[in-house]
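# step 3/5: fold
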Amino acid sequence: MRNMLLIAKREYLEQIRGRAFRLSTILVPALIIFLLGISAATGRKMAARRHIVIAADNASLAADIGSNLTQEKRTGYTVDIVSPFTAQDRADLQARVASKSLDGLLVIENSTTATPSVTYISQSSGDLMSTSRLQDAINRGFLDLRLSQQGVPADKIQSLAKPVHLDTLLISGSGQTGKSQGMTPFYKAMLMTFLMTMPILLYGMDMARSIIEEKSSRIFEVMLAVARPDDLLTGKLLGVGAVGLTQIAIWIAAATLLSGTALMGSLVSGNVQLHFSALEGFLFPVYFVLGFFLYSAFFSGLAATCETAQDLQMYISLAIIPTWASFAILPFLLNNPNSPWVVAASLFPPTAPLIMVPRIGMSTSPYLYWQIAISIALLILSIWGVVWFASRLYRIGILMYGKRATLPEILRWLRYS
């Protein structure tokens, strides 16, 4: 135990004092802030004012559509109306769109017939949000027109076409209801999965690379004279895992200090407020440590069988397949956190750390606490099995030089140890 703690202390202090730790601690949040800034700038650009012209053969229809587009300030539309219009008017307006003095041209012909012709001309046809908003305004305008053609008074049309607000509620297994959080669970799931995935993979691969470097320098031949291979491996896992927790604690502290500043207010929409329960705050480091031990032990066992970093690269894709699967399951998690696929992924040890923590804030299953307990128990058993396997590969492979580790060779190592 003493040797294990000494090795853990050495690994922790060496990593903390290293330049890579300082750079990653600063650059990762900086990258997140940069991406949030790009997202905010893109959102402001999408919400920028758009100048369009409606050329229609029916002035009241054009005015109605224009009113539907401009009644919400956040849409950012400026609408001019040309009604009636000629072929020359249309050609001139299209030329203005081509020269970018207009953002778009909406042409409406044969509006009183059963098959009207509606065409939108712009240089940004891929703007799905604007196209959807425009389609909604057109549909409402034609609905008003057809109702008026049927003799329905204008005040009746407004009352009939008045939109109905939809309230969404969540119900728990005990029958209690609460207001839906909208897109907040999505942002929480992405943030927690990112914070869980990045350090686990980065530090796990860093540990694997350090094993290969120490194996190449043959420093282990000296270290094995005073410590057992199991103590060396477990000590490295403890030390590097503590580094990961330290880095996450720094990020969380920095995010807490910046949460009320104008910088974060300008980057994050005021409609998105992330709240974490005490259970989420408690289980996040628990699952991080368990996930780190599981992946790092697996990486370490693989690294002990490799001679160079190039050999390790061949196995990395196998190790990160569970993380890809976890991100693929996130849409199912957001849609139904209690579906069989999500429950299975939250219990399956390689994906449990990345799925269970985001699921805690969404699930209302009465069996959630039992599933958390089973998930942690399965993770601990898996870690014990992976560490047992990795330590035996480590014990023999760390002293093997100049011989490629084939599957029969690995099985022979297991028998030797």
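# step 4/5: annotate
The chain has two domains: 7-40+181-416, 49-162.
# step 5/5: archive (pending)
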